[in-house]
Amino acid sequence: MKQVVKKVATAMTIAAVLVCSSQAITTKAEEIKEEKSLGGLSKVLDNYNNEGISNKSQSTTLLSTQISIPENIAIAKCNDYVNIREKAGTSYNIIGILTKDSYGIVLEVIDGWARIQSGSVTGYVSTDYLYMGAEGTAKAKELASLLATVTANSVNVRKEPSTLANDNIIEEVVKGEDLAVLSAEVVTKNDPGAVLWVKVALDDSEGEEVVGYVAKDYVDVGYKWKSASKVDIEVANSSPLRYNLVNESKKYIGLRYVWGGTSLTTGADCSGFVWAIYKKCGLNASSLGLPRTSSEMARGGNKVTSATIKPGDLVFYGDSSGRVNHVAMYIGNNQVIHESGRQTGCKISNMYYRKVVTMRSYLQ
Fold first, then answer.
1. Which of 181, 245, 206 is nearest to 325 (CA)?
2. Per the residue annotation, which of 20, 78, 270, 346 is the catalytic one?
3. Is 20 a known active-site residue?
4. If I label 252, which of 51, 150, 244, 312 is the partner at 20 to 30 A Cα–Cα?
């Protein structure tokens, strides 16, 4: 019997309600209580910006930790991952992977199968592998992460919340990238225009967490959940080895970052994750000539370009001086998978989410 569940919006960025510490905003308490969407948060901050600069120097505006959970949210209930199929049944093609603790919006339920939408994937998952209803809502509240999503074409992450120093830029990050918000506050310093700044984390580098600030005008701050990953045509048309590398790697989205780690169970760092995935797919690092660290990896193998790179090849990123300090694996469709850092763990990013230093292949 088909049970139709009310369809809901699929936008997953849930805005924080603003808790105010400056007099300029606390006078708008009733207005703030009504603003629960990301647009509401932006509106309140816009109003704050228009209040006048003199009252805002060196102030701090707190973002609430309250979370608004979407209706009919479901969370993956599995040890590692569950397959998303094109239709309701195990005989149908797999079109995506939903890893442990990832979200989906339930569109309908048909004979023990839920049709869900998660990220760019819409398909069917057995309800045996989903927390739904009250359980799903409780799990979603527990697992939500406060992130700053870049909305401009690119944004500079700065060492300090100021535009005054030319050497203040750590890294340029492109549109669509999610940065973990380290503290629920937006700060402003003595800066032209009293810019609002959000404190965020970049990729960990050599065991150290890289922390910086982004201008609030160029990011959306809100709660998100891990989403499904799609089985891409480019990957499906690759060699069996490259296909296995990509699909195996996607099973570990969310794996925690551990400096020096090479485990797909307890955690890994960026280069350790590459090692572990290659090993899982039957590749021997010594036979490939694959070094252990990202800086060493970037000097070996065969150089490839954006025109010749294939799924399973490696993409390297560096600091402002161009020194390599991070590696990711290309998974097709201009995306990479990587152990980002202790705040977000393993995740998928745009291949050019940061400035690429070089690309290398250790595969035939």
1. 206
2. 270
3. no
4. 150
Q: Are 338 and 325 in contact (CB under 8 A)?
A: no
Q: What gap in Å lies between CA 290 and CA 123, rounded to an integer?
A: 38
Residue whose tokens read 């050019």: 352
Q: Judge whether 281 counts as a catalytic residue.
A: no
Q: 324 and 316 in contact (C-beta within 8 Å)?
A: yes
Options 20, 78, 281, 326, the catalytic residue? 326
Q: What are the C-alpha distances in Å from 130 to residues 57, 101, 141, 163, 242?
A: 48, 9, 15, 46, 30
Report how far apart, in Å, the C-alpha atoms of 96 and of each of 89, 114, 169 are.
14, 14, 37
Name the pairing type of β-strands 178-187 and 169-174.
unpaired
- For every residue of 78-110, DSSP letters joined together read SSSEEEEESSSSTTSPEEEEEETT-EEEEEEEE
Q: What angle do CA 357, 227, 236 make, to 5 degrees?
A: 65
Phi, psi of 333 (to 5 degrees): 55, 35
Q: What is the CA radius of gyration of the chain?
A: 22
Cβ neighbours of 79 (radius 10 Å): 6
Among the options 20, 78, 281, 338, which is catalytic?
Answer: 338
pLDDT tens sequence across 263-306: 999 999 999 999 999 999 999 999 999 999 999 999 999 999 99
pTM: 0.76
| Cα–Cα nearest to 227, from 20, 51, 11, 3 | 11
Pure H helices in 144-213? none
Q: Residue 361: what are its φ and ψ, rounded to 5°?
A: -125, 130
346 an active-site residue? no
